Each structure stands twice: as structure tokens, then as C-alpha cells.
Amino acid sequence: MCEIVFIDSAGRETRVQAQEGETLMAIAVRSGIDGIVAQCGGALACGTCHCYIEQPHLDRLPSPSEEEAMMIEFVMEPMPNSRLSCQILASNVVDGMRVIVPDSQH
Fold first, then answer.
1. Where are the domains of the chain?
2. Which of 22, 45, 60, 92 is the most buried (most CB within 10 A)?
3. Phi, psi at residue 29, to the nearest 5°?
4. CATH of domain 2-105
5. Which candidate, 83, 85, 93, 71, places its Cα nearest to that of 23?
6. Distance CA 35, CA 90 (A)
């Protein structure tokens, strides 16, 4: 198990426990995180699970796939630390990771 911290547009933090191998998107949906809509269910077809990953965890993640990078180009407010939460798996590498949900998704 690991802990993920989701941060909403008002700066409120929600700490949730995650099972190894679970996607951040699934964790957010299960935990009722506002702004992670996940319309396509993780099929890399919509970008509604867009989030920002804070350092140092951003550098610990594998680089986005070509498909993820292309989808990020179409989200509102893309930033250098933009990721799609459907593509990030919970593991000991992400324990304590801080995930910011963009204002545009609330």
C-alpha cells in the first residue's frame, strides 16, 4: 500500500491509500476526488483524468508514452508536469506523491 495526496483547486488535500498496481485515476474515482472524471475509463481517449504531478515524484515516473503525450496536448491548461492519471500506477515509487487537479476540471 502507498499514500497519494490529491490537491483540489482550493488547496485542500485528500490523502488516500492505494493498492500497488492501481491507477491514479481509479484511486481518484474510488475516493470521490472532484475533477477526475475519467470519462473514457482509462482508454487514453479523453484527457478527463488530467492532473499535475509535483516533484520529486514527477522525475521518478516513467516518461509519458507517445499516446499520453499527444492527449496531454489537447487538455486545458497543459503544463510541463501534466500527466494523465490513468497512465500512472501506484507503487512504492509514488508513495506520498502529491497530485494536483487542475482548476479547469472542477
1. 2-105
2. 22
3. -65, -45
4. 3.10.20.30
5. 85
6. 19
